[in-house]
Amino acid sequence: AEVEETLKRIQAHKGVIATIVMNAEGIPIRTTLDNSSTVQYAGLLHQLTMRARSTVRDIDPHNDLTFLRIRSKKHEIMIAPDKDYLLIVIQNPCE
Amino acid sequence: MLGPRKAQTRPAPRRRGRVHGGAKGAPVSPGRRGPLCFSDKGGAGAAAALTAGEEPQAVQGAGGPRRRGGRPSPAGRGEGPGHGEAAAARCGASGAGSLLRRRPRGTARPARRARPIAGAVLGSQSPRGVLGRVAAVTEPRAAAAAGPVQRPGPGARGDRRLRHRGQGTPGLPPLSRTGHRRHVFQAFILEQAAPHLCPSCSRLRKPPRRLRKCITSGSIALNPSSPLHHSGQLRGQWAVACLASRVRRGSQASFSSQRRVSSSGSISTRRAAGSRSPSTASTGKAAAEGWAGGNQDAVRVFDDEGKDVTPHPLFHSDPNRAAPRQGELWSLSARFAARETGFVAPFPTQQTPGVKASWSSFPRTNGSSSTSVSNTSTAEAALDDPLGPGSRQDTTVGVSGKEHELDVQVKRGEIKEELTREDLDRRVDLYLTETETLWLFYMPVAVVSVESEEAGRVLEQNRIYVDICRNRAGNDRIADKMMQTINEATKNKEVQCDKIIMEDKGTVVTSWDLYDSFSASEIEPATKAEGSRAPPGKSSTSHPTEEHNQTRSLSSDRGSPSRRTISGSPVLARMPEEEECHSAAILTSENFQQHLFCMERILMENIFQPKLAAYRQFPILTDPDVTPDTSGTVGLVTEVKQEEHDKKKKDKAEQKEAFIDPSILSDLNKTPEETVPPRLEWLWSYKCDLTAGHRVSSMTWSKVNPDLLAVGYSAFDFKAQKEGLACCWSLKNPKWPERVFRCEHGVTALDFSAASPNLLAVGMYNGAVTIYNVASCNTAALLDSSQSSNKHTGPVWQLRWVEHNRGITGDGKKERLICISADGRITEWLIQKRLDCTDLIQIKRTESKKIKLPGGEKRKSEALISQQAAGMCFDFHPKNTNIYLAGTEEGHIHKCSCSCTEQFLETYRGHKGLVYKVAWNPFSTDMFLSCSADWSIMLWHQNSQTPVLTFSSTTAFVEDIMWFPKSAFTFAAVNESRAELWDLSVSISSPVISCSAKPHVKFTAVLFAMNTNCLLVGDSRGGVSVFELQNLAAPNSNEADILYDIMGVAVAP
């Protein structure tokens, strides 16, 4: 319940374009985007996150990736990776 | 077994003579030899059987003499002509005179060279049975040819052969193929016959297949498993089988051999002697046989399977053959021939007399009387010697003659071809019948009793053999020779099986993969150990717990992600639901919450970044990529600014009007005028859906974390009480509180502890005091005053943790929770197992006193009646924590001491209404400020019973005041309509900044930020607005003095 509220809140925040939750396999569990975009985001970001985590862990196996922010001209993509899922929020900070 | 083996493996030909000479050669000993001899019976019998019906002549001519017993040995010579007839089967007709013609062309050398082999081969006649038979079969023609008429087939063939070889006449078609084969065979045989064959090697374990067939089809039993199959003897036998069966020039060979015998008498003699057999005779016979066999070319022999097993000639004369070899070969052949004891060969008596003589000189007895035979042969050889040249001549003549004769024959055959072909077309029935078993080799057991007669001899033999073996290394007689054996036939077999599916799998292992797996393997044992430790405890526990454990373990069987949630959720997911459950698990996991929390903060940071920077008084950086769309805010701000400006102007106008001390004021006013006027800039509001509709009753900062704000919410209207809230806001998320404590009643006051920064004390409208732990997410109250017997009965209007530096009891620093309540008491709460309180002062009494005091003597009765005057606020002296002020409902402010619980130290009367707040000036500690519902703010000096200054800007309740923590002149006040910032150094008549609230919104609380120039204003709609104070005058160093001056000025008049 609290999670739902939080998700709603996040989605309601200014500039938030999309919220995607996907499991460890990169399969979207929850999304506020349309299907195709979700699939695209999920596939690409999952790979990217895995790569990023791999990078972090390769440098130091004790370390781990906790957050990934991608700032672009249009958007900021924020990824909270976990062992079991990925939380992705796409925000347009200009709004 | 040793003895015999030795004997067998001896290098045959050369040794032979010696052995014989020594009379020790086991192989030639009669006893041995006996079994080795081919029993001629079979062959002869077969021949007889075959020929019996068809070929009387053959029987007479060839077969007849063959018979062992029945042959008159000495008569050989005499029978010469008869034999000649028989032998004439092939070359026999040699009588023809054209021999001479042949001669010059005749390849004497080749012939001679070939002879030894042929002789050898012939001598060993093992397959003679077959040959004999075949010969017998073909005999009729031979017989027929005995006269002038020759059999066309054999003769022609043989002749062709000869021609082909000797003259290079184009080969006749039918033979060209087999001819080649013959070559091969010949080579093979020669190889075999080499005298220096290593006898112990396994060069030739089996005769060529064809040969074998030949043998077997001829019903000659060859024991294939014979241990001596590789012995020279047997080999010789095979060789004989081959050659005898198909050498066309057998006669020639025989001739040459014969001639040899005659010419080199000594050798042949020796040989003959050694073998003790009528070598020449047998040779001759074999030759005849061979010759007869040669006829087979016309007749083909088929075995049961219909394969052609017709023997082929093995031998070709090879002109290039090395001469030295001849002797060896010859000797070998001699030996082979010698082997052939007891075999009576028909003599090819068709040869020249000389030859005949030499041949016939041998006795045709069975080989049994070896000595005699050898003697005879010796004698014969000796006899022949003188005749050497002649005989040789004769022989050659004979040969050539024969060849010529063959030629003639061929011609004749050609002439007669048509006729004979017809004959050939005729069906010829061949009956191959099995003959008696023919023993080719027999070796008796070689174990001899020590006591037997032979013992000595055998021992001697063994010794010799040992010697030989010992001397083997340097012995000339023993030579090592490499020999290639026939390859085992390979066999291809196809097997079908299921298709083997190949699969490639690859994986990439990163260093952290390795690390994880290693750490996992390290962790696992530990958990296992724990698990093993657990059972005892489990067993001791009651049943239900075990079940619980089981369910837990069951849930833990699932993937780690689901495990977490399942253990949390009471419902166990079923398999089909796993997917959903999985996602649900993710969505409900703590990690997810945490991440959402972070995510939200990050979003907030993105959104509020400029404002947060402003709050922190950092320079605001704008993202070049982002076009800040802050027009709304800017607009608002500008609006506010303009308002401020307007108000300021108004204030200034008022200021001028309300003339108090123009000189000072003008002095003070100069500074702000020179600079940009200070203003409040709205940054954000701590507001959320939860708090909407509530009234902000109090705000406080965390003592440790200056970014953490606790806000108490109560019902907007005190008359319609509803649930209250206590929220902790973090600067990082202005849109949602970090902690939400829901209270049954409206929150009227709250404060953070300084000693235990995680403790938040909350006072409520019903008088309850609750302490929450904000460090934990658990929103349940840590402590509650509900069990306290002394709990407040009225709303707790103010509540504060106070550090007592100079405790009365001298315990040093001690933090106390002080509350003031509408029930007229100021209480100190003790944080123990349960919350309890002691009264700092009897509010009721003070009330009564207070009534007495103001009333004096006049209203005693009234004082008795009205005991409910409530305390509204209090403030402890910043330096002397024993002293505190208490504001009351009726507008009086009492100065009290903790050590005096009975009476007030001082009472300040000035307010006409509720005293909402009293506040000591943090710098000038003699001064304090009070605000009241009578729309006024009063500045007091503690030594003065009357207010030093009274500030009144609006006609609204002044809900809250607070001194600016950085300046002694500045304080903020909120009334219902607006928030004001007063700077006494600027103006004592009007606020420097004022900010009006939106319509229908009343400001209820004010708070300065601890570490920045920000002002927080709570309103009646549940929002806490954050304003940035811009362009505030820098605080002076001697503010306190200035304040005194101001006050002095104010007071003086």
UniProtKB/TrEMBL annotation, chain A:
Keyword terms of this UniProt record: Cytoplasm, Cytoskeleton, Dynein, Microtubule, Motor protein, Transport
Biological process annotations from GO: microtubule-based movement
SMART domains: Robl_LC7 (SM00960)
GO-annotated cellular components: cytoplasmic dynein complex; microtubule
InterPro entries: DYNLRB1/2, Roadblock/LAMTOR2_dom
Annotated Roadblock/LAMTOR2 domain residues: 3-91
Compartments where found: Cytoplasm, Cytoskeleton
Listed Gene3D superfamilies: Dynein light chain 2a, cytoplasmic (3.30.450.30)
SUPFAM superfamilies the record matches: Roadblock/LC7 domain (SSF103196)
Coiled coil (UniProt feature): none
Top-level division of the source organism's lineage: Eukaryota
Annotated family: Belongs to the GAMAD family.
Record's function text: Acts as one of several non-catalytic accessory components of the cytoplasmic dynein 1 complex that are thought to be involved in linking dynein to cargos and to adapter proteins that regulate dynein function. Cytoplasmic dynein 1 acts as a motor for the intracellular retrograde motility of vesicles and organelles along microtubules.
Protein name (record): Dynein light chain roadblock-type 2
Organism for this UniProt entry: Colius striatus (Speckled mousebird)
Source species taxonomy: Eukaryota, Metazoa, Chordata, Craniata, Vertebrata
